[in-house]
Design brief:
113 residues; alpha+beta; 37% helix
């Protein structure tokens, strides 16, 4: 792989690929991927290239519930293990085990939950 396409962290890539079941479609053109498959690939790219600050906007919105849960568990585990700061925006109800702080937006203002 060229330097441009080499993952920043091969161990993280292997973990994400296995957890999110990415191998069956990794060689397919992006235009042939479903919304959920494309979202999983985008999450892979974000995680392997993270340099300490991970910004995720609706990272599991197109995933089936069981896969979404595994993805959130993985983001949480990697955030803790790697010492990252992660900001995750979601319309889903927050789960305490995935959050250090939960804020809700009301009338344009952030409020602690």
């Amino acid at each position: 792989a060229s330097a441009r396409h080499r993952p920043a962290n091969a161990a993280i890539e292997a973990t994400v690929r296995a957890t999110l079941e990415l191998d069956p479609f990794m060689s397919r053109p992006v235009s042939t991927l479903s919304a959920g498959e494309a979202q999983r690939v985008a999450l892979l790219r974000a995680l392997v290239n993270c340099r300490g600050l991970l910004l995720l906007d609706e990272p599991v919105s197109a995933l089936q519930p069981d896969l979404a849960q595994r993805a959130l568990d993985l983001v949480d585990a990697l955030t803790r293990a790697e010492g990252w700061t992660t900001l995750l925006v979601s319309h889903l109800p927050p789960e305490g085990r995935h959050s250090h702080a939960v804020l809700a937006m009301d009338a344009g203002l952030l409020q602690p939950v």
